[in-house]
Amino acid sequence: MRRAVVLLNLGGPLQEKDIQPFLFNFFTDKNIISAPAFIRYPLAAFIAFTRSRGAARDAYKALNYKSPLLANTQAQVAALQQALGEGYKVFVSMRYWHPMADAVAAEVKTYNPDDVILLPLYPQFSTTTTGSSFEDWDRAAQGAGLLKPTRRIGCYPMDNGFIKASAENIRFAMKDAPENTRILFSAHGLPEKVIAGGDPYQAQCEKTAKAIAAELGIADDAWQICYQSRVGPLKWIGPSTEEALQKAADDKVGVLIYPHAFVSEHVETLVEIDMEYRHMAQDMGVPWFGKAETVGTNPLFIAGLAATVQAQDNEKFLPGQCAAKARQCICKKAA
Fold this sequence. Notes:
- Helix content is 48%, strand content 13%.
- By secondary structure, the chain is an alpha/beta fold.
- The protein folds into 2 domains: 3-156 and 300-324, Rossmann fold (3-Layer(aba) Sandwich); 160-291, 3-Layer(aba) Sandwich (Rossmann fold), CATH 3.40.50.
- Helix 1 runs antiparallel to helix 2 and helix 7 (160-174) runs antiparallel to helix 12 (299-310).
- The chain is globular and about 60 Å long.
- The two termini are 31 Å apart.
- Residues 317-328 and 330-335 have low confidence and may be disordered.
C-alpha cells in the first residue's frame, strides 16, 4: 500500500511582496468572511491593501517579512515521515499561500497512492480552518483528477501525544518562573456568531486546556483560557488575552502564555505573543511574563500524529463521502 499523508496548514508570506496577496486569499475565503462574493472580494481587496501597509506589514517586518510557518511545517513533515516509515509519503498543503492545494494535489496524483489521508495541523476543529482546508482540498483534488479513497482526520484536541508534549514544553518554560505564576492558554479567537452556528472550536479549546492542566497537575486557579487576534467590529469569544493579562496585573501574578491551538511557531506566536503581549504585560505591571513554545517537532507530538494516521487504516471513506463531510469534525475524539 502507498499512502499519501497531506498536512494542512494556513500558510504565510515568504517575502514582503507576498503579504498583500496572502491576505487577499485569506479574506476572500467564504469561511472567513461570509458575505456574498460581490461584497467579499472588494472588501478583501481593501483589507489586504490596508493591512499589508499597516499592522500586518509591521508584524511581518519583525520576522524579516518571511513567515516561518512553511519551514516549521516542513520540519514536521520530515519528522512525521521518519516516524511513519515506508508505505507513507508526507506532503504539505497550505491554504492561503504556497504550496497550495492545486499544486500539491497534482504532486499527490503523480505519486499515485492507493489512498490519501488529510491531517490538519489544527488540533481543534473549526469551519474557518480545518473545514475550509478540507473544502479547498476537495476542489483541488477534483480539478487534478485525484480520485483516490480519502480519509480525513477532523481533529485531535485530546490526543495523548499532543497533551503530553504541551505539558513538557510548559514545564520547561516554567523552570525560571516565580512561584506565583498563572498559565494562560491562548487560542486564536473567533466571532461569537461562528460558535453560535455550531462550530466546536471553543469547546475543544477548553477541553485541551483542561487536559494539559490535568497533565501538569495544577490547580484550577493556576490557569486560564483566553483568546487572541481579534479583528473587526464583530463580538468575539472571550475572555481576550488582553483581558487575561489585565486580570493577572490586578491579581499581581506573573503569566506564562502557551498557545494551545497552534502546533508551530509563526507570526501570532513570535510577534503577537512574544513581542506585543510581552510589552503590553510590562505596561500593565504584570510582574513576570513568559511564553512556552508550541509542540513543533516534539517527539511526543509527532508520535501522536503518527499513531493517529496509522489508526486510520481501518477507516474507509470514499471521495464522495469525504466531500459531504468537509465542514464537519468527524474525529472520533471530537467530543
